[in-house]
Amino acid sequence: MNPDYVTFSKNVFIPITNICKNKCHYCGFRRDPDSADAHLMTPDQVSVLLSKGASSRCTEALFTSGEPGELISGALAEISYSNFVEYVADLCRMAIAHGLLPHTNAGTLSCDELRMLKPLNASMGLMLETIASVAAHEDSPSKSPSARLKVIEDAGRLGIPFTTGILVGIGENREDRIKSLMAIRELHLRYGHTQEVIIQPFVPKPNTSMFNHKPPSTEEIQETIVLARRILPPEVAIQVPPNLMPPSLSVPYGASDLGGISAVTIDYINPDNEWPALETLKARTRLRERLPVYPRFILDEWYGAETEELMSKYADEDGFRKC
User: Fold this and answer.
1) Under a CB-based contact definition with an 8 Å cutoff, are residues 314 and 321 in contact?
2) How many CA atoms lie within 13 A of 252 on its CB side?
């Protein structure tokens, strides 16, 4: 990665549903289906956010969700869908029609589901979180490390540019972090599909069983960034979200990307951690804007076929965003 600049993308964050079959002890995003603030966004609600994103010169529509399974079958039926991933696919088509490149992170998808979404996405993602068995995941069946590694491997087999990462401070230790990074490295060396690895600090959330759990120290995150840079191949970027750690504390240790930054929507996973203003970041860090798929994948035409027209519109000759 080029040490002369730090990359980022401009996105609109679209939380399709917060209903989830997992019950991670640290998660403040998920809701049970009968909760007053549980939601499944309607197409009209998604369209409003996409329009705001397009008018704000975003290039990325970041689709995220809980893993609802059958918990939302009734809500899907109300909008004439029987399958959640088919609904996500149509939302991706909607994003493309609005001039935005989809990046979907919808949990532990099957190989067939990844194949369905591949043509409609610039890139996709799934956090590994940790390869360790931790108490924080004891009520979360799809947080099984083997299940998540299978998704990452399936994405590699399908040639999908992929984002993954680890969550630091949820009960794992330093050796677990090393093993997690090594597992990501092994799959990338086999398939060449990992575009970035996120080093994400655990942030305690109100009304969760880990609210009083001590978050990782700045030094722990910095050590993990250093480990990641040593373990991962040089072409794989290391991302640290700037609303969770200032770039001045992450970039000197090997972080090279800030991820998606939005002036349109909050970080729904960490809603109390506001995005820093882009102008403030630019004043302190030399930034270069990218698209939701990294330049080397654009140059090699590793992106969904349905996004090709938008890639030609947005990407310059080096695969970064045109000015």
Assistant:
1) yes
2) 6
Angle at Cα 295 formed by Cα 110 and Cα 16, nearest 5°? 40
Residue corresponding to tokens 């109300």: 78
Task: Return the half-sphere exposure (C-beta side, CA atoms, 13 A cut-off) of residue 11.
Answer: 27
Q: How confident is the model at residue 263 (pLDDT cuts 50, 70, 90)?
A: confident
169-191 tens-digit pLDDT? 999 999 999 999 999 999 999 99
Burial of 280 (0-12, 13-18, 19+ CB in 10 A): exposed
φ/ψ (deg, to 5) at 321: -75, 135
Beta-carbon contacts of 294 under 8 Å, excluding residues fewer than 6 positions away, are: 123, 161, 195, 196, 237, 319
Angle at 260 between CA 157 and CA 248, to 5 degrees: 115
Q: Residue 288: enclosing H or E segment and its boundaries?
A: strand 287-289
Q: Which residues contact 161 (CB under 8 A, 6 or more apart)?
A: 122, 123, 124, 193, 195, 293, 294, 297, 302, 303
Q: What is the DSSP letter of 29?
A: S
Buried b (16+ CB within 10 A) or exposed e, 9-31: bbbbbbbbbbbbbbbbbbbbbbb
pLDDT bracket for residue 1 (50, 70, 90): low
CA 120, chain centre distance (Å): 16
Q: Which of 270, 247, 252, 244 is nearest to 28 (CA)?
A: 270
Q: Which CATH class is domain 6-307?
A: alpha beta
Amino acid at 283: A
Q: Helices 84-97 and 43-55, interaxial angle, to 10°?
A: 30
Note the pTM of the prediction, 2 decimals: 0.96
pLDDT of 31 over the 80 cut:
yes
DSSP 72: G
| Cα angle: 65, vertex 179, 69; to 5 degrees | 20
Distance, CA of 311 to CA of 97 (rounded, Å)? 13
